[in-house]
Automatic annotation (TrEMBL):
It comes from Pseudoalteromonas peptidolytica F12-50-A1. It comes from the Bacteria. InterPro entries: GH, Glyco_hydro_77. It catalyses: Transfers a segment of a (1->4)-alpha-D-glucan to a new position in an acceptor, which may be glucose or a (1->4)-alpha-D-glucan. Its EC number is 2.4.1.25. GO terms for biological process: carbohydrate metabolic process. This is 4-alpha-glucanotransferase. Belongs to the disproportionating enzyme family. The lineage of its organism: Bacteria, Pseudomonadati, Pseudomonadota, Gammaproteobacteria, Alteromonadales. Keywords: Carbohydrate metabolism, Glycosyltransferase, Transferase. One of its GO terms (molecular function) is 4-alpha-glucanotransferase activity.
């Protein structure tokens, strides 16, 4: 292996992949070099290349134990690297924080690997140790009188899984901002979420799946995509409830805040004016913040404790106490909503959503700039809808830098997003293993896969899940590497199934008895039209209206949709549903679809609140930015109205799940 080829391997730069067509694609060498250069490597400097190869490959064999040691809770072991000819007379491991001290057996150690460097053979030896509790532990390893330090990661067998084999749960998914307030508020927040929780729990619903609640751009509210956030470790103040805040501090909100002036046209408008909503919310929050300064002694200690605990995440707000206060309040209110969910009998409660990356120029990116590749952006390889591939514009984390700082950033990310919830959905879970990096040069764009330290990222996920008792769902739509599928199954990371995409080898909708068991099943998600819009072709008419499809493309798309609808009718018939055909109203087809899906093996069935609202407008049209008002569309009815109207459908689904 030549020096450059070795470094490409050590940096995880992919060599090949299989395209959606099944074609075997080998990445262009210059494209792969671009990935190295984006990681700050001068590929023309052979001394630098050799030094990096030494640091990433050889150096670890010259030290008996690595900076991080992975081990399993069920079978705890240490891995040592020693010269093959050396003798081992003393081996102990101590973890002072746990009062743990274990003298290891030095005889009959298992050899699990070797390496030859400059004529010397080094061996990797596995040695069993006494059980250690799950978590990250600062350990001292003494070998023949010489002391070394390592961070011992003790991982459970799998993520926390609260759903027994014979149990099936029903949930509701919602974009929080899309909820329609019952009063004259401009937009929904944690108050409306709490109302939805109580209403849904009363009908037997076990969880609420949310959109990402990440901090967006407070001073640029029109940057509304929850999947292009400002900082994934923080929450968006947009969701803070004035009502809950006043209740928390025993303040009469009517004394301090006049109702927002909303006329009839505002109430009937389908899309939120994000700037108006954000400015209105911030004005109210700032007034209340100023008033609460007089009561500071009552809450200052809790606030300071929060700031200390999240010191790193809040580093961008060093001189902005108001912004830090908003984060404290937001996390408190989210945790309050989760507590309400559990008190009302929900099995899981809230399920948070973690976006795959942060926006370019975001505070997350700027405050962790050294961890990111310079200009590479995350996207997707060519597919039938984008033959040139997709560039999502999200900065790409450098896998080598991520490991060099012991994954502290990734730990922050997971901890922040499992705080105050019962479940975590990871968008594009394949990103734990590999991400498609895009490189733009002039008018052209190239790309390749870059692989991440999956074993370590998965270990963090399992440890944090177990410690906080939060289940994990991975959004695994698209091309999923075999190793991801196996790891998800073994780790009890639930799959994410969309009915539209579950097809057999004949391109027919898959029979429900073949659905995965450990899975969260949905008809659609935020990137797919609501069912009523899909059935009536409203999404295609909308794309034509926004000039995303021309006349010919619209005609082809309509014909394809008719074919899909016909497949759905035949699928329903095969599952014992009669009387549904292409002329049937969506209001008749949707309950029939849910009744069949409710009988699938999938442990989690999720109803979109959009569909219960009979919504026809999408919340997002992938591939658009300015053309369509993405991430702003409100529901047409309040949660009270939607749940009351859907009561029988929800109860039937609960009953069918338990048959």
């Amino acid at each position: 292996m030549d020096h450059i080829a070795q470094l490409l391997y050590l940096y995880g730069i992919g060599y090949e992949y299989h395209k959606y067509t099944g074609d075997h694609v080998i990445f262009d060498h210059q494209t792969r070099l671009s990935a190295l250069k984006e990681c700050g490597v001068n590929t023309d400097d052979i001394d630098e290349v050799n030094a990096l190869n030494f640091a990433l490959d050889i150096a670890k064999w010259l030290t008996p134990i690595e900076a991080i040691t992975l081990t399993k809770e069920a079978q705890p072991k240490l891995t040592l690297r020693l010269e093959a000819c050396s003798s081992l007379s003393e081996l102990t491991i101590s973890i002072p924080a746990l009062n743990y001290h274990f003298v290891c057996e030095c005889n009959n150690l298992s050899e699990v690997g070797d390496y030859v460097y400059q004529g010397t053979r080094y061996v990797a030896l596995s040695v069993a140790i006494a059980p250690v509790v799950v978590g990250y532990h600062q350990a001292k390893v003494t070998i023949n009188g010489q002391c070394y330090e390592t961070e011992l990661w003790v991982t459970p067998e799998h993520c926390y899984d609260p759903i027994s084999d014979n149990k099936k749960l029903l949930g509701i998914s919602v974009q929080l901002y899309s909820l329609k307030p019952e009063n004259s508020k401009l937009s929904a927040d944690f108050f409306e979420l709490k109302e939805l929780i109580v209403l849904a729990a009363g009908e037997g619903v076990d969880y609420i799946l949310l959109n990402p609640l990440h901090l967006l751009f407070v001073e640029q509210p029109e940057k509304a995509s929850p999947y292009s956030p400002n900082d994934r470790r923080l929450l968006h103040p947009f969701y803070i409830s004035i009502e809950l805040l006043c209740e928390r501090f025993n303040v009469d909100k009517n004394v301090f805040f006049k109702q927002s002036n909303i006329d009839k046209s505002d109430r009937n408008h389908s899309y939120l004016d994000m700037s108006r909503c954000m400015n209105d919310k911030l004005a109210k929050l700032h007034s209340l913040w100023q008033y609460l300064q007089n009561q500071r002694n009552d809450w200052d200690a809790d606030f300071k404790q929060f700031c200390q605990r999240k010191k790193e995440e809040l580093s961008g707000f060093t001189d902005d106490e108001f912004a830090r206060f908003l984060q404290w309040v937001a996390f408190e209110q989210l945790a309050h909503c989760q507590l309400v969910a559990l008190e009302h009998g929900m099995a899981i409660g809230l399920i948070n959503d973690l976006a795959v990356g942060c926006a370019d120029g975001s505070s997350e990116y700027e405050s962790n700039r050294s961890l990111y590749a310079e200009h590479a952006r995350v996207g997707a390889p060519p597919d039938p809808w984008a033959e040139q591939g997709q560039n999502w514009g999200l900065p790409a984390l450098n896998p080598v830098k991520l490991k060099a700082e012991r994954f502290e950033f990734f730990k922050q990310l997971i901890r922040a997003n499992i705080s105050g919830v019962g479940g975590l959905r990871i968008d594009h879970v394949m990103g734990l293993r590999r991400l498609w990096w895009c490189f733009v040069s002039g008018e052209s764009q190239s790309g390749c896969y870059v692989y991440y330290p999956f074993e370590y990222l998965l270990a963090i996920l399992k440890i944090e899940s177990a410690l906080h008792k939060v289940m994990v769902i991975g959004e695994d739509l698209g091309v999923v590497p075999t190793e991801i599928k196996l790891a998800m199954a073994e780790s009890h990371i639930y799959s994410n199934i969309l009915f539209y995409f579950e097809k057999d080898h004949d391109d027919q909708f898959l029979a429900v008895e073949h659905y995965k068991k450990n899975a969260l099943l949905m008809v659609a998600n935020h990137d797919v039209p609501p069912f009523f819009g899909w059935w009536e072709h409203d999404d295609l008419r909308l794309k034509k209206q926004y000039q995303l499809l021309d006349e010919q493309q619209t005609s082809v798309a309509n014909a394809q949709r008719e074919t899909e609808r016909d497949k759905l009718c035949r699928w329903l018939s095969l599952h014992g549903v009669r009387g549904i055909d292409l002329k049937s109203e969506a209001a008749l087809v949707y309950p029939a679809l849910i009744k069949v899906l409710a009988q699938s093996p999938a442990k989690m069935l999720t109803l979109q609140l959009d569909d219960l609202d009979c919504q026809r407008l999408p919340v997002n049209i992938p591939g658009t930015d300015k053309e369509y008002p993405n991430w702003r569309r409100q529901l047409t009815q309040t949660s009270t109205e939607i749940i009351a109207k859907s009561q029988m459908l929800i109860r039937d689904a609960v009953t069918s799940r338990n048959l």
